[in-house]
Amino acid sequence: MFARIYRWFRRLFILVWLLLVCAIAGWIAWANADLISVNLFAIQFPKLSIGFYLCFTFAFGILLGWFGTLILANTKLLARKRELNKAKKEVDKLRAAQLSP
Fold it and tell me: Residue 36: helix, strand or coil by DSSP?
């Protein structure tokens, strides 16, 4: 029951967070409507609004941070699984040693 309520609140929180992020992105795009052209590593990008480039950079940073965190979390998870398997093998050895006289 508590897991169901937790999932519902978690989904509600994510929805509110996404709506807030979209509202902030829309406000930034509206407040920064001037057109600029970005030159990055000798690549000329088209003239778009400052707000678009800011929102794109923000979204790219979020995705990059999310993927970096995902990689670190998976690395730690694999290390913990290896430790758990090692401990299980040790417990199995101890149980086998206790059973055989």
Answer: strand
